[in-house]
Amino acid sequence: MAIDTAPVRPIRMRFDFGRLDADDDVLSLDWWRRWVLLDGSRTVLAVVIAAALFAFLAAVSRSGFTPLTDLQPIFYIYGSLISGNLTLITVVVSINQLLLGRQLMTPDQLRQQIEGAIDYRQDVEDSARTVAPAEPLGFLRLLTENTRRKAQQLGGLSTTEAGEAVDEEIDNIVEEITENIDEVVRLLSESDPSMFNVLSTTLSTNYAREINRLRRLDRETDDFPRYLNEWREDLIANLQNMDIARQYFKTIYLQEELASLSKVLLYTGLLSVSAISATLLLFTGPGGTTVTRGVLEYLVPAVVAVGLFPLVLLFTYILRTATVTRRTAAIVPFTTPTQEQ
Predict the structure, then answer these.
(1) Mean pLDDT, rounded, for 94-123
(2) What SS3 class is residue 19?
(3) What is the pTM of this model?
C-alpha cells in the first residue's frame, strides 16, 4: 500500500510589534521577514522606510556631490511629487469604486449570498451541535475545536482490526491534525478579534494533504473498515469547512484592508501635496530661496521623503495583501508549496 506520509508543516507563531514573548528570537531573519511581510503595523513600517530614505538622501546631500546651487532640478522633483500624489488620490477613488462595486447587488444576489452563508453556518453548527458565535474569532475557534474533536474520535475508533498499516496511518494523520489545530487554537486564544489577526492564524493551514491521505485509505486499502467511513467523511467535511472559513475571512480582510488603504492614502496624499506646496513658497524670494544652504541640505531630503510617503505606505499595504493572497491562493483539495511555508 502506497500512502503519502509527508508531514504537515507547522504553523508559525504570529508576532505583534511591541509585544514579544520571552522566547521570541527577534534577531532571527525569519522573524523580521514575517514582521515586514505580515505582522508589522503598516504605518510603522512605512515610517521606518521613509526615515531610511530621508537618511540616505541627507547623506547624499551633505556628501559634497550635490552643490545645491542650481535650484531648478529641485522644482522638477517637487512638481513630480505633487503630480504623483494627485495620481495616488485618483487611485484612491478607483479603489473605492472597486469596493463599492462589490457591495452593489440586486435583491436576488443578496438573498443567494446570505442563504449560502446561512447554509454554511448551519453545517458547522450541526457538526458541532451548538450555535456558532457571530464573530469571526469565536466562529473559527468553534470550528477548529470541533475539527480536533472529530479527528480524536476517528483515532479512538481506529483499531488493529483494520490492519496495522491502516491503523498506524490513521494515528499519524490524527496526530498531525491535532498538533496543527492545537497551535491554531492557542494562537486564537491569544489574538484580538481583528480580522487580520484571525486570518493570520490560518495562513499556513491547508489540509489538502491530510484530506488526500484520508481518501486514499478507502481507495487503496482492501481491509479498511466500513464503520469508519462515516467518521472519516465527517472529518474531511470539517477540514473542508476550515478552508472555506479561511477563504471567506480572507475576502472580508481584503475588503477591509483596501478600504483602510484608500483612507490613509487620501489623508497622507493631501498632507504631502500641502507640505510640498508650502515648501515651494520658500523659493519665491528674490534670491531664489529664503533658507540657508545648511537648512536646504536637510529640507530637500525631508520634503522628498514626505512626498514619497504615500507611495511607501501603498507599498507596505500591497506587500501584505499580496503575501496573504499568495499564501491562500489554492483551495482544498489543492495546495501549493508557497502555502506551506
Answers:
(1) 86
(2) strand
(3) 0.83
